[in-house]
Known about the structure:
Largest sheet: 4 strands, parallel
Number of helices: 7
Radius of gyration: 16 Å
Amino acid sequence: MGPGYQGTLGYGFATALGVKAADPSRAVVSVNGDGGFSWTLQELSTAKRYGLGLVTIVFHDGFYGNVRRIQKNRYGARYFASDLTNPDYGKLADAFGIRSARAYTPQELAGVLADAVPANEPILIDVPVGEFPSPWHLIHEGVPRPAPLAPDAHLVQRAGV
């Protein structure tokens, strides 16, 4: 499920909870950035209260990524109100009585997902990342594809965390 072209920040996590509530037997994975997830993170209480086995992934870079990218590309990297102060996601999950995990690489994320999906219990997966490339060429016709980032540039190196 997705919002189409609406660009509805914060849509993903709350909608995924509704999808899971509608069909608890179906595996549901919610993929979020930290900015969007922050709009409805309090709904972790809903997942716990109703036993909704939603797998929630938060890719966190500490920014409203699309806003920051626009500020970088259109306004000469003059940044304003696009950075975030995030919680410790493991502690946040623990505060709601929900399991958590952290993954630094695609392989680690695959391993966590392999365990989390069949468990059918709420889990919050924290994935620290760097800058993501623009997604708009995938969504809108005629938008040029961005120059590729260096291999694994989107991942935070363990030593830097």
